[in-house]
Design a protein that fits this description.
Number of domains: 6
Helix content: 40-55%
Number of helices: 42
Number of strands: 28
Structural class: alpha/beta
CATH architecture of the largest domain: 2-Layer Sandwich
Amino acid sequence: MSTKFFNNTPDNSLFEKFKGIAHNMLDFHTFQAVVGYFRSSGYFKLREEFEQVKKIQILVGINIDNIFRKQSKLFFGQIDEQAVVDAYSHDFVEEVKNAGYDEQTERGILQFCQDIIDKKLEMRIHRSKNLHAKFYLLLPENHNPNSDGWVIMGSSNLSDSGMGIMPSNRYELNVAMKDYDDVEYCKQEFEQLWEQAVPLNLQDIEQMKAKTHLAQLPTPYELYMKVLIDTFGSQVEDDFAMEMPEGVKDIRYQHDAVIQGYQMLMQHNGFFLADVVGLGKTIVATMIAKRFVEANGRYTNILVVYPPALEKNWTDTFKLFGIKRYAQFVSNGSLNKILEGEGNFREKGEYDLVIVDEAHNFRGATAGRYDDLQLICKTPRMNEGLVKGRHKKVMLLSATPLNNRPTDLLNLLLLFQNARYSTIEGIPNLPVTFSPWIEDYDKLMRERKLDKKNERNAEFAKRTDDLYEKIRTQVIDKVTVRRTRNNIKNVPAYKKDLDDQHIVFPDILPPNELMYELNGGLNDLFYSTMAILTDTPHPEDNPTGKGLHYARYRAVEFLQGEARKKYPTALHISTMLTGIYRVHMVKRLESSFYAFRRSLHTFLRITEDMIKMFDQNKVIIAPDINVKDKQAKGWELDRIIEYALEKGLKEEDTVFKKEDFSEQFLEMLKEDAKNLKELCRKWDEVSEDPKLELFIDKLKHEFFDKEINPTGKLVIFSESVDTVNYLTEQLQNRLHRHDILDVCASNRTNRQDILRKCFDANYAEQSDEFNIVITSDVLAEGINLHRANVIINYDSPWNATRLMQRIGRVNRIGSVADKIYNYMFYPSMQGNQEIHLYSNALIKLQGFHSAFGEDAQIYSREEIVKEFQMFNPDIQDAVDRNLKFLEEARELYRTHRKLYNSIKALPMKSRTVREIGKHPHTTIVYLSSPQKVEYYWVKTDGKVLSIPFLDAMDIMKAEMEEKPGDFAKVMDFHYDQVKLALESYQKVVRKVVDAESMENRKKDKSTNAVLSILRTMNRALNAVDAETAVAQIKKLEQIVELGVFTGLNSSINSFNRQVKKQKPSSEELIAQIIDKIDELFDRYNIPLDTDEERNGEILEPQIVVSESFI
């Protein structure tokens, strides 16, 4: 069938039509085009076919809406001609930036420019908003009724896809006509439009080309600086200045932390401020908060979440910086007041910025206060200020954010990131990313537990180091500001600033080991006691065990019949409580013999009290009312039962009979009582205390040596309040010292002022009334004790990072001594075999060192101390090269502003050539997209290496005097190597996108299980037309899908377990589902942004720069 119509199918495209006419038309003299869209890169192939055409005229329409808006002109004739040219120039530069990177495409673009310069091609820009026509005239020199001539009209623009040169999913339809009247009519129309249009002249073309990479070859130095400027972004030019309050030093490293932290806050909606203890995190956070207030406007609302001991510190600092009126302050145990509308707190959605001090206290996602905090942090802002976006900004302050496990870090990240679709580059799905790390850590800890003799400590430390290296490079670096003192001292600008202000950072010496010996009968008693405490009988794991059953904590395990059904997780609860109390007893023995004796007698009393319950046939199980405490106060059982009923507990769920328990339970209680009585008798006879004797000896002869302790101040930590009281009494009685201050939770507030006078070097009013402070870990956070430089760890804390926080009390800005002495009483070998306290602390501290970096060894000389400088993408040991690169860019900005601006303005795809005798026939390529940034080094053999930023900078670093080489000498390999880099990038990003795909989501089993439960509920409710609940479930599914609230998933799983256990009727089940969904919807429903879903599309990377070596 013969037809004048054609589409862009193969062999029937617009390009093929042009080609056919050009080859067969006898006198093809003129080509004229009216198009709405023109690609100069597509001109090249057309130009090859039109080589003999004498006159080419192209008329392009542009989108001039922006011109109308900018100039506020309503009529066509008033639009400035230069604005039209500028609009086309912008489109041309964008086209070059987005065009394919190959020699043929670039030759086509350059040919287009040259043809205009040579006047072979004329081009004009039409100013009408209504120019939507597309037609092409192919004419002889003298077009008349007897000559040849064509007009082609239709949908196709003059571009690769429009002409059918490249595949396109767009359907194009065109018609070719050669009747004279049709052609002549279009010819006249063209001439009329041509006269109305704005011509492009030689100067316009030169200026357009100059804005692209095709017209310039930067020097190697300029390209090197371009990468630095692009990488560090606003940090280079940020001239953020803040007038510091009187008495507050303007310290440069803190100033730079404000700049970087604020940048992360804007990019990721949150970050970790994790400088080591004593560098002034409160000041830095307050400065960032003030900067946010200035940016967001006067209606900004800030919430500060603090540990109780630090309230005054925060309120005073905010007042000092003049932003207290924008903030509300809440202790970390009172977050429920905000959610329940108690006090004068604002609605959770009214806050714009949330600051969480000692954020590691929220590492456990199962705790209720974590759920409360996550609700506050993740509920969108009700009123956007000048800083746009619905997401709150969250600052997490902690010198020890990685408290124990990788899970801890994940939980903290989820306070400002969603589990799926996170903003962290290369980490779209946080649970899937963390899952193998969590598995590796759990495996490591299991193996460590089996290493009874601690023979593999070095191996465990190395494996921990390797694991956290991955976590650090892939996640932590991107959302953390952290410096150690050594980092700061290694940056010349910072060191000079500190020297000028006479600020000294003391050196932390390696831990001093204090080992005490147990002699004779005491050694035997220690061994036998440890055996009784740890050799717990178990029918499967330890059938021959001779130790304590810890039966008092296992009552629910031995319930039977109907009573047992009330506790479906009884075995798990009993196992957990037994383990906790066993470790507690061993640690009390390690802390002090005095503390251990008190714990023995307490354990005996509560065990005998439960035996008395059996004697009265009234066994009370009610964890919520603390039965043990009531019995200790002398309450009768009937009074305790009455009290429980008043609290709303049901008698049948609280009070049990002897027959509700298996017979062996009472026998186990009696065996425990017998063993505990014997232990109490033996330990009550012990009068010696070698640990105390060693301690007192060191007090007399070492701890107050002026060479070690010039100020005569001493800080002593113990986990046990009993030990604190014991040491205080012993030192007062035996050394006759009355300058000892004991501090614990009960007296902390009352002793705060005198503590600061005697131990805080920054406090205006100084006193020497007290020179020794003996404290529990209540003073391990946020308190200045830096008039002292000697710290004694009388026992090892349960949480190993407490050790780091303890050191931080004396290692602070303004410390009075140049050395910090850290003394450790190590657990004895006997005790450590049971609870692995030494190796447990070592492995956890090693994990922290590897992930975040630290100044010094805290616990053991076996720790591998690393110094990471967390300023942007990659960090190196010892000297902060990253900061040096930033400083280099800043120096250029300060001293050569004109050169800096010209380098910053270098276009995408900028490239240069180097001839330095190194790396011949290789190319460095820097690629970027919203999904990922990569630096590639393409070798001669075609091997593509992904290299870190710092390594790329080492290769690209150049001096200002170096000239670029000849680009023609690298053209034979340059384009091919850049193409290989692009292909490698696509493979990497494909993996990132696949992490968001349904296939990869299957790995997120916990989320998928919750979604499955919701969909089952949905089907049940659809069957009974419960429209409101169905709509609520649909919204909750979206929130679960995004991974917004951890507590929502937990609540749904818990409800599902409860339903399976109770097995209600269909009617009861529907009612329970509706009630539960309504409850969850009320707590967790939030508005979602439309951009919180991604479509899994791979975004094409931009070639930022490339550099080839001759």
